[in-house]
Design brief:
21% of the residues lie in helices and 35% in strands. It has one domain: Rossmann fold (3-Layer(aba) Sandwich), CATH 3.40.50. It starts with 6 loop residues before the first strand and ends in a 6-residue tail after the last strand. By secondary structure, the protein is of the alpha/beta class. The chain is built from 3 helices and 9 strands, in the order βαβαβββαββββ. A 6-stranded mixed sheet has the order 4-3-2-5-6-7, sandwiched between helices. The longest helix has 19 residues. The chain binds inosinic acid (IMP).
């Protein structure tokens, strides 16, 4: 495989990710079953795409999805200033929103996006993330549904990149130190 010399360790295999995503989808189905508002999954580009694609298969409800692109980091460090590069195409007034993230790190991205979605008239906003890195949290923002917790190390794969590379790996792993140079 092209990437095998770059990966130091695999944290979560494709099978583990799919199994956990199925559990989350089933939990969401149960939690939203009696909600009367229309439901929209909002994926944050580009990292959330593989997770969102797996998750929607396991939500047994009438649900739509849309995407936003916000700029939150360069290289390996998350930053405070977040710019909206692509806004939603859907008018979300009165919708129950599930914001889908690949990883919550400092929490600044979800904090800002949740604020924006509520400002646009969403009835409710909850957050579902594949990974949570709680040791790095700065903002007072937490996910409602979490796939796995990770230590304070930079991860790639299953949508997550290092300088736009490795998003297509079917698993989540950590790069060898020399790859960051
Ligand atoms: P936050 O605003 O600090 O929570 O940053 C969240 C965003 O930073 C995620 O959606 C990712 O795009 C990116 N990010 C944070 N940690 C990692 C990582 O370990 N690997 C890849 N991307 C990351």
């Amino acid at each position: 495989m092209w990437e095998q010399n770059d990966i130091k360790k695999v944290l979560f295999s494709e099978e583990e990710i799919i199994k956990r995503t199925k559990e989350i989808g089933e939990q969401i189905t149960e939690d939203y079953r009696n909600n009367e508002n229309p439901m929209l999954l909002v994926g944050l580009l580009r990292g959330s795409v593989p997770f969102l694609a797996e998750l929607i298969k396991h939500i047994d409800l009438d649900v739509q999805y849309d995407f936003m692109d916000v700029q939150s980091y360069a290289g390996t460090e998350s930053q405070g200033d977040i710019k909206i590069l692509k806004d939603l195409d859907t008018s979300i007034k009165g919708f129950d929103i599930l914001l889908v993230e690949d990883i919550v790190d400092t929490g600044k991205t979800i904090e800002t996006v949740v604020e924006t979605l509520l400002h646009k008239g969403a009835a409710s906003v909850k957050i579902v993330t594949l990974l949570d890195k709680p040791s790095r949290r700065v903002a007072n923002a937490y996910a409602d549904y979490i796939g796995f917790e990770v230590e304070n190390e930079f991860v790639v794969g299953y949508g997550m990149d290092f300088d736009q590379k490795y998003r297509n790996l079917p698993y989540i792993g950590v790069l060898k130190d020399e790859c960051y140079k």
